[in-house]
Amino acid sequence: MSDSEAGTTVEAPADTRTGQADPAAGTEKHTKHALHTNLKRGMEARHLQMISLGGVIGTGLFLSSGYTIQQAGPIGTILAYAIGAVIVYLVMLTLGELSVAMPVTGSFHVYAEKFIGPGTGFVIAIQYWLTWTVALGSEFTAAGLLMQRWFPHTPTWIWSAACIALIFTLNALSVRFFAEAEFWFASIKVFAICAFILIGTLTIFGIIPMKGYTHAPMFDNLFKDGVFPNGFMPVFATILTVNFAFSGTELIGVTAGETRDPEKAVPKAIHTTLWRLVLFFIGSIVVMSALIPWRKAGVGESPFVLVLNSVGIPYAADIMNFVVLTAVLSASNSGLYASTRMVWSMGHEGMIPRWFAKTNRRGVPMLALCAAMAGGLLALLSSVVAASTVYLVLVALSGLSAVVVWIAIAYCQIVFRRRWVASGHTAAELKYATPGYPWTSWGAFILCTASFLLVFFDKEQRFALVAELLFIVVCYAAYFVQKWWRDKHPAAEVQLP
Questions:
Q1: What is the reported pTM?
Q2: CATH superfamily label, 41-487
Q3: For a surface tag, which of 212, 304, 358, 480 has the fewest beta carbons within 10 Å of its beta carbon?
Q4: Is Ribosomal protein one of the keywords (predicted)?
């Protein structure tokens, strides 16, 4: 599809795009093709909401939050998370309009191809695939290390292999199986955070006694050394980290093509995202900061464990080890799903051989699943044999790739709305319209772009920006080389058997 062709209409038959057979659209040939690439709409609203949370709540909150508090101070960390929550919410509002209007699996690159250009669509697909592929490698490693607490004499690789087998099986059985497993994985994390905030709040007000205190701790620790004890620059660096931490919320867009009644499920999941992010992340940070002096928050172990130990919760470390293990399984489960659907979507759109889009009778794209798992295993291998070179570059690329996807989402919605109006439609005709357009959309685009470019001013993350810009150039080059080759060697489209 050329750029001019992409601009002719904003109304694509969503069912054929997602592989759903639409009896009212297309020819017999299209219907036959759709049957071979049919994804099942097996997810419900409750699955979608938990998947959006499960993609965000990970080891960063449970393990790394103490380090963040130590760097930016309590108030600085709360401010950074608040700004990050606003940015991701604006992006989600723009994604909501696109996902309801065109509920397609692998949505981001399809939107980018349609509203920006096929080259950009290819780049976005590779970027998002890489984000989750690298995450898979790190999560498989983390699972093995976490099990060492209980089984110190068992080789780490055995537990990593067990995690790989479990996650592969959950994704191979059916999308319903994946969604149900993710629902329960995410539910455990949500329950643990709610329990932590409740216990912490009761401790702050002196209802539950805390070691070292003869009175209610209240909120003195938040302001003890000033609002920004280390200056404002660490707060800026934290905002960048928070943006990376919140990546995963856009999974709602990936799942839209396999969700029952996306017109209702997608907006509901989006509108619950902000207040849950605020409650879980900022609530946890406030509790940690109030109960632990900020200089001690990042030392040694998880701040969750420090708080639970200080109020006398037995087996606090073991409980949190289990919760973090659940978070790892949840992240790897979502990661393999997202990576698989991106491979499937690229095959379905003809960016890679179309047989990657073939599905089995359960609606699972097994070849795409195997390719995604192979990518995760290669990332895992690079973390073992080339941790300081190849894997370091992959991690740097993965961090900023999510922000690039957010920028593309916001811009695609702006172009979509313009074309929608230009074709004689009104915003009232949309089943879900981004509130506050165009301010919401441009706010998302500008804030995400600023987050991406301002990485340059953080010396520790400047390498990531350079690597990401070079990778974008390489992706565009790969697309144009591929296009040149196809134009020079025209061949009949490969039909699925």
A1: 0.81
A2: Amino acid/polyamine transporter I (1.20.1740.10)
A3: 212
A4: no
